[in-house]
Description:
The chain has helices at 20-34, 39-48, 52-92, 101-110. It contains four helices and no strands. The protein is elongated, with a radius of gyration of 23 Å. It starts with 19 loop residues before the first helix and ends with a helix. By secondary structure, it is an all-alpha fold.
Amino acid sequence: RRGLLPEPPRLEGGYRIYSGEAVDRLRMIKGLKEWGFVLRDIAKILVLARRPASNRSKIIEVFEAKKIELSHTIALSKSKQRLLGKVILECRRPARAGKCPILRAIESMAG
């Protein structure tokens, strides 16, 4: 879709036969997606991977940026987890007049 994988011509039956190199590239793309890389970053890594020895520091930079991004995502998820725990505890307390604490928490986050 984005030119990450060379597209071989179709055979008579409509099938395509990919080279071993294309299959390896596809495995790399799938692996990078599993690690959370977006297509833009995958494309950059694939270009850099053509000359790994001379692009090693640039490849490391891309992976370090992903690591930092994941750290932020984890921190945000932990914060949300703590908030959910507090809201659940509040909901388990004897009923009070007014709206459910879970719904109030959601509304305050959206506002």
